[in-house]
Structure to design on (138 residues):
């Protein structure tokens, strides 16, 4: 399996906490600092409180695959033939039900992905940044 190398939006303020977390080896999810509720995908504005500032909190590295798909042909511009196939998973951290973080399935040779399979987070260095990776637990 490959690992996709694509440009991420490191300059997007709404995603800054997420990518800073990945660089630190953490899975950080945006939260409403007043209620403590998880907010995913990170909003530019907290619903009902436009002046509030989104916070970030480290989420559990343990969780489960909510869904997955295997990419066999890249549609990214340029030559990405060495990066395919790869499997994208939606990961739901144990302590953040309803949050589904996209990432790449790694270290899974010989393991068939399945909805509900136990996974653990790993930050993957790719080029000059990190992306979210998830490997089978255990």
């Amino acid at each position: 399996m490959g690992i996709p190398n694509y440009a991420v939006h490191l300059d997007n303020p709404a995603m800054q906490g997420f990518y800073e977390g990945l660089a630190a080896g953490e899975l950080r999810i945006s939260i409403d600092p007043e209620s403590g509720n998880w907010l995913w995908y990170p909003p530019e504005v907290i619903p009902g409180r436009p002046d509030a500032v989104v916070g970030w909190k480290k989420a559990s590295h343990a969780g489960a695959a909510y869904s997955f798909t295997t990419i066999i042909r890249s549609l990214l511009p340029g030559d990405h033939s060495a990066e395919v196939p790869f499997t994208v998973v939606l990961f739901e951290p144990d302590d953040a039900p309803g949050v589904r973080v996209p990432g790449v399935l790694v270290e899974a040779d010989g393991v068939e992905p399945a909805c509900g399979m136990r996974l653990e987070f790993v930050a993957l260095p790719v080029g000059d940044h990190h992306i979210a990776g998830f490997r089978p637990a255990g």
